[in-house]
């Protein structure tokens, strides 16, 4: 059956640690939202008008979704769109995995899953490309107003390693499970074809890829 093999070759201990750290991260997020909510409550109450809601939605679509403001600079605009769109699509893809695996709603099945794999591969590549463009911009100091400390650059490289690690782990999974539909994961198959010694170093590469992929989360 065409379906996602969630937590393939992942031990029970790592599964438990994943959920523990995820719960911790969610609690921090909820606390941050609560602090923001308390700040909102201090404001003066006003009557919400539909015109204001409509205008705010229009601004959101123009500035956040279409990102019209950064279109004036093609290179910087592409960098920002690649990174932001890639991140959002990968986040949505992760949410679908949660729905499929944790809530036991079988949505990642059949043709939908095949297009899901292809779609996330494309945006995963764009995400990595956008990050590399951002690193190049910082290295050339093209934007003097940007903070360019060690932590700023390390965070970008960490995201790059996580993205590459995801493709590595996926490629190894395809090689080991020998699924017939592996070709839908284009970059993973390219990784497999380029790695002639993948079976000799499978354990090492799997560990290295998993370490990169989960490093940000931990």
UniProtKB/TrEMBL annotation:
It comes from the Bacteria. Keywords: Membrane, Transmembrane, Transmembrane helix. It comes from Bacillus salipaludis. This is Uncharacterized protein. The chain crosses the membrane at residues 16-34, 82-101, 113-137, 149-169. InterPro entries: NarG-like_sf.
